[in-house]
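Running this now, will post back.
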Amino acid sequence: MTALLRRMGYVYKKPKLMPGNSDSEAQEYFLKEFLKFMQNKKKNEAVFFVDAVHPTWNSMAAYGWIKKGTIRELKSNSGRGRLNIHGAMNAETFETTVITSDSKC
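Update: finished.
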């Protein structure tokens, strides 16, 4: 089966991830309203975009070709470690602030 698939032009690889719900009209509307907001806000007001991520400290197993009957091991840690990263970016100056912690949010 593998030889047939290869002859037909297939390769074994991971798919490319793409945003599943992007809406260009909604994005254009947001940009128009955001620019209008930025022009009309008070001079002494700051606008920030804020987001957080919570990566785990562990290897992530993926698929690959492994000979039948063979076990391929991937060294990992406990998988319970977690890092919290909170970031903010000033919408006018692009200055960023990042806060990291090991504790729960």
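The longest helix spans residues 24-40. More later if anyone needs it.
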